[in-house]
Task: structure prediction
Amino acid sequence: MNKLIEYAFDICEIKSAELLRLVEIVLKQISIHIDENELCFGTLYERRTFSGEAGEVTKDGDILLDNDKLRHYEEDVAMALIAHEFAHYRLNHYSDKRTNTLDMEDEADQLAKDWGFNVDLFRKVCGPATLQGLC
Result:
C-alpha cells in the first residue's frame, strides 16, 4: 500500500486496486492544499454504505466507499465524491452536534472544490445535495 495512504488513515481496508488508485490520486491532490502532517482521515473502508449511497462518513467518523457504485461514474466524478466524503471528515461533520444539514453538504462541496476537484460535474451527474445522501 502507498505510504501516503498508510499515513492518512488509521485503518484502510480497500481491496479494489482501482479504488485504491483513486484514493491515492485524491490524497495527492489534497496534500497540495494542506500540510502533510494534517493529512489524517481516520478509517477508510471499501464496503456498502448504510445509506445505500456511493459514499458516507458514519457518526463514528468511518469513511465508507462503495466501489460497486463508484465504478459507474467517470473518474472525475468519483474523485470529487471521494474528496467530498474526505471533506466531511476534515470538517468534523461526523461529530457535529447538528444533524446532517444541507449546510454541511455545501461546506463539504466547497472544501472539495477548494482542493481542486470538479464538484460542479459531480453535482451535475449526481444531482444536488440532499439529506438522503449522495449518488
